[in-house]
Amino acid sequence: MVITLKQNAEQQYINQLHKEIKDAGCRIHACIGDLYTVYGIEGDTSKLDEKTIKANKAVKDVVRIVAQYKLANRLFHPEDSVIDVAGIKVGGKSPLVMIGGPCSVESEEMVCSVAKKVKEAGGCMLRGGAYKPRTSPYAFQGMGTAGIMAMVEARNQTGLPIVSELMSADKIEEFEENVDLIQIGARNMQNFELLKEVGKRTTKPVLLKRGLCNTIDEWIMSAEYIMANGNPHVILCERGIRTYETATRNTLDLSVIPIVKEKTHLPIIIDPSHATGDWKLVEAVSLAAVAAGCDGLIIEVHENPDQAWSDGAQCLKPKKFQTLIEKARAIAQIVGRDIA
Ligand code: PEP
Ligand code: MN
């Protein structure tokens, strides 16, 4: 961190600044110029807050050099993290994971049937929401515990590890016991109390989706919340962000793949279904994501999309999911990867 002092800064405010920096365990390296005094701050600056420092009357400017996240930062952990999801490795040079399944679990029979199709198509994990974050309170809210138990039955029948979204801390034990990969949805990316509890009370890997309107650094800071509270097993998931464009449900930001890989050591998977909102676009953007170096895809798959209880317009039928995986395999090989 670099701090520039104001010309004629008053000593009492300079003293206050020194105290703040020392209390955070950092050291000051002063460079006294003809016009300005500049402080290079040495040590772990993650506990220093730029806005608080900027509020000091002696301070003209503050520039952070090292990002505030430490545990997620590639700088302090140069090798890729490989996250184990019920024996399936995600990240590094591991084969890409193809996760398929419905937006919502609609019944045990339905999810077991689609799970078999996902497996036949070449998918290696099953997704399915039992607690749904719906825009309307009148829309289907998910089957709750019965939906989680239906996912467990689908895993028993197919062997596919299961991914489901956790919306509130009171369900953590249910997820820790039953789910293989705990999804934190876009709308909860900055639910800091939930992130803290997930960090403290789960050991299962966490799939952290990017918020609808969040920057990459905000997203990584949310991963840091989970990691700093005790669970280092975080996989990032880009699912599109809100822009002025209306042709797609969201705008898929593919540039995050190389950016996230430079900034962090965490795996990143792409959700082309919520990104586009349109099944016809899912294959094209999926292949682009594989070419860009993602560690996997999470795709909504439904046997009868026109009857789906949520997100039917973006669901692929199992056959299309299979074709997509076959094409993705060819692209993956070009970029030196395989498909799990
Ligand atoms: C979902 O995966 O069904 C979902 C609601 O995703 P997101 O949080 O990305 O909107
Ligand atoms: Mn959905």
- Unreliable stretches (pLDDT < 50, length at least 5) are none
The profile of the biggest β sheet is:
8 strands, parallel
Quaternary structure: single chain
CA radius of gyration: 23 Å
- Binned strand content: 15-25%
Number of strands: 14
Helix-strand pattern, N to C?
Answer: EHEEHEEEEHEHEHEHEHEHEHHEH
Mean of pLDDT: 98
Structural class: alpha/beta
Helix proportion of residues, in percent?
25-40%
The 3D shape can be described as: elongated
The strands making up the biggest β-sheet line up spatially as 13-12-11-10-9-8-7-14
Distance between the amino and carboxyl termini: 42 Å
Number of helices: 11
Annotate the secondary structure layout.
Layout: E1 2-5, H1 11-23, E2 27-32, E3 37-42, H2 50-55, E4 59-63, E5 83-85, E6 88-90, E7 97-101, H3 108-121, E8 125-127, H4 145-158, E9 162-165, H5 172-178, E10 181-184, H6 192-201, E11 206-209, H7 216-228, E12 234-238, H8 256-263, E13 268-270, H9 272-276, H10 279-291, E14 296-300, H11 318-334
Parallel strand pairs: 7-8, 7-14, 8-9, 9-10, 10-11, 11-12, 12-13
Antiparallel strand pairs: 1-3, 1-4, 2-3, 5-6
Bound molecules: phosphoenolpyruvate and manganese (II) ion.
Residues 103, 274, 300, 310-311 line the site of manganese (II) ion.
Description of the structure:
The protein is α/β, with parallel strands linked by helices. Helices cover 35% and strands 18% of the residues. The chain is built from eleven helices and 14 strands. Strands 13-12-11-10-9-8-7-14 form an eight-stranded parallel β-sheet. Helix 5 (172-178) links the parallel strand 9 (162-165) and strand 10 (181-184). Helix 3 (108-121) packs parallel to helix 4 (145-158), helix 3 runs parallel beside helix 11 (318-334) and helix 10 (279-291) packs parallel to helix 11 (318-334). The longest helix has 17 residues, at 318-334. The chain is elongated, with a radius of gyration of 23 Å. The protein starts with a strand and ends in a 6-residue tail after the last helix. The mean pLDDT is 98. It binds phosphoenolpyruvate (PEP) and manganese (II) ion. The site of phosphoenolpyruvate has 11 residues, from loops.
